[in-house]
Amino acid sequence: MSKETATRPTKLYFSIVFTVVFFISLILLICWLSLRPHEPKFHVHNFSVLGLADHGFESVRFVYNVSVRNSNRRVGISYDTLTTAIYHNGRPIGITPSFNSFDQEPKTTLYISHVLTGGAIAAAAGSGDTWKEIVGDRGSGKVEFQLELRTSLRYERTMWDLRRHGVRAKCQVPVGGDGALLAGYVGQECPS
């Protein structure tokens, strides 16, 4: 038997094994991509700053409505405390725990409404420079704020992963001179 005829069955055997391993790996990848849980999606529906025309943070109230969508078909989500932070030009204006832990069923949307008021805002904002910048921006007709929602979550009824995951959604929420969210930003998705 020559060397060529002895290696032919070996080449055939390895090509069959590699082909089978490749297709099994491809099937497992597709299953993993289709069955893994997806992160929730946050959308801003309303954001307003009441008392923007006043003379300081003590009388200002930030009011917001956000929806949280769980798009998973069979996987619920358990959230820890949801913390809200509001920023102007990267500086914190107010940070507060908004809600204690809660659960969300699959394929549902939760609506979250919250008001952040003067005392917490003034303490976080610190100096009057931030207020002066906000008043200056208000004079130009547009004040840029960032609403940040932070939580940790755990997926329920999943075979893939049971540990907690940190989620941070950052929403750009510019308001007009009247303190209301600009129309083009209503319903926007917040990247996480």
What secondary-structure arrangement, pairings included, does this model have?
Blueprint: H1 3-35, E1 41-50, E2 61-70, E3 76-79, E4 82-88, E5 91-99, E6 102-104, E7 108-116, H2 118-125, H3 128-139, E8 142-143, E9 146-156, E10 165-172, E11 175-176, E12 188-190
Antiparallel strand pairs: 1-2, 1-12, 2-7, 3-6, 3-9, 4-5, 4-9, 8-11, 9-10
Helix content: 25-40%
Taken as a percent bin, the fraction of beta residues is 35-45%
Number of helices: 3
Order of helices and strands: HEEEEEEEHHEEEEE
What's the main sheet like? 6 strands, antiparallel
Regarding quaternary structure, what we see is single chain
Q: What is the molecular shape?
A: elongated
Q: What features would you highlight for this structure?
A:
12 strands; 3 helices; alpha+beta; four-stranded antiparallel sheet; 41% strand; six-stranded antiparallel sheet; 192 residues
Please characterize this protein's 3D structure:
With 192 residues, the chain is of the alpha+beta class. It has 3 helices and 12 strands. The radius of gyration is 26 Å and the shape is elongated.
Compact overview of the structure:
The protein is an alpha+beta fold and 192 residues long. Helix content is 28%, strand content 41%. It is elongated, with a radius of gyration of 26 Å.
